[in-house]
Each structure stands twice: as structure tokens, then as C-alpha cells.
Amino acid sequence: MNPPTDRPSPTVRHFYDDLAADYDLIYADWEASIARQADALSALIDGTADSGNGSVGYDVLDCACGIGTQALGLAALGYRVTGSDLSPVAVTRAAGEAASRGLTLPVTAADMTTLPFRDGSFDVVVCADNSLPHLLTPQAVLAALGEMRRVLRPGGVLLLSTRPYDRLRRERPASTPPQVRKGEGGRVVTFQLWHWQPDGERYDLEHFQLLPDAPADSDGERGRGDGWNVRTRRASYWALSQAQLVEFATRAGLREPMWHEPDESGFFQPVLVARRPGALAKVTGHDHI
């Protein structure tokens, strides 16, 4: 039986459950990326929020937090961050990463189309790193954006990032360049193959990670140590154009949508910033979950 059209496919959860332990290996320097992305997002928040207090007093929901790439950096800057993600394995790692850094990061496993938070709980919602395009139908996209609007306080701000799909839909790339990172056991190679569907908007992705084969133990059981351990994961995306996302955000009740490109914002992807109508009232001490 196919999943309902307003919910993400079960394969998305499986993709990120399986990737959680190795997600940081996608980055040449994960720690540097955490800090750099948080600085860029914080600047966007400061430039659009109604208060001039910066991170002080802001409640932030990262509704696709994964292992914490954006949430950890924002928490380190002083934002009160809550993380949610479809993958329980990923949020468990995010919580562990936060604890190891002495940061507070409450997390929950949750589908962004049905967020388990009270109305008006957050000043800022972040949905970064091309997470929304896992939703493949208009019903699902509208459901997720409607939930993000619902949990924002009046005047609250949504920051949503995707790949630069306007360009990618023209070019229709078949792959991404290999990325090489030095891991504990040697070099780790990551790359993707993209298979575009006939509609020209959706594509199926194969994510490859090549990790050094484990050295053999005394009985030769763990591996020969002279090859690669290849891990393959699959997922699908909807390459939503910027105009499409603006239309969906407006239909979901968000206002003042504006795209910020990487050369302007310093964030590695284009970011759509939009607002829930109303004036932001600063409230502290809420229970979010």
C-alpha cells in the first residue's frame, strides 16, 4: 500500500536512520560547518526578527534537525533550540552530540507534516539542508508548511533551505562530484547519482559512501583491509523551484517570502525566509513538546 500523499515516504526515515552514524562524514570538516552555518542562519534571524535582542530569548524549532548540524550551532550561540526529525536514530545522535558539548537540545522524532508542538510555541522555525523536498506531492508540502506556520508565534520567522533547483532543473545533473574526507580508518569518499523522472521535477537519488575496509583480525573475520566497504542508500526528491516554494508558502499562510542566495547570506544553500503574520510577542518559559 502506498503512503498517504500528505506524508513522507517510509523510505525517507530508513534513509536517515541508516545514514545517522556516518552523516558527519559527508563534510570535509563537520565542526567547522556547524559553526559556519549557525553564524549565517543567526544573521538571517537577526535581520528579519522583530526584536533586536539577537539570540537572547528566542525559541527555535529545527524541524529537520538530523544529527544536529544546524541545531548544535544555534544552541551554542545562545538560542533555545528544540530539535525534531523523522529519524529517531538521527535525533538520538543529535541529543548525544549536544550533551557531549554541554548544550541543551531537547529532541523528538516527529514528521514535519504533523508536528507535536503547541500552536505558537516558537519564534523561529528552521527547515534546512534540502529536507522539505523529500515531500513529493503538493498536499505534503502544504501540510508541512502549514504546520511550520502553526507552531510559529505571530510575527515568527521561517528559514527554509533547498538545493539551487532553478539551476539544477535546467542542467539535470546525473551525479555530484566525489567528496573525500579523512576518517579514523582512512579516506572516506561520498558521491551521489541522480535519476531524473520524466516530469523533469522529481529525481531518485543513490547516495554512495566508500569507507576503508576494516583490517582483518587474527582469524581473518573482519575484512581484508585492502578494499572498500560500499554503503548505498536511496531516496527521492521534488526539485521545487523558488517560485513554486513561494507559492506554497503563501498558500500556507506565510507572508513576506524572500529568497537569500549563498553569496549574500553565507549559507551554503539558498534560504527562503517568510513570516507568520502578526507582531512577535516575546514570551519565555514555554513547554514545547
UniProtKB/TrEMBL annotation:
Keywords: Methyltransferase, Transferase
InterPro entries the UniProt entry points to: Methyltransf_25, Methyltransf_Superfamily, SAM-dependent_MTases_sf
BP-aspect Gene Ontology terms: methylation
Gene3D superfamilies membership: Vaccinia Virus protein VP39 (3.40.50.150)
Protein name per its UniProtKB record: Class I SAM-dependent methyltransferase
Domain Methyltransferase positions: 60-156
UniProt-recorded Gene Ontology molecular function terms: methyltransferase activity
Highest taxon, organism lineage: Bacteria
EC number annotated for this UniProt entry: 2.1.1.-
Name of one Pfam family that matches: Methyltransf_25
SUPFAM superfamilies: S-adenosyl-L-methionine-dependent methyltransferases
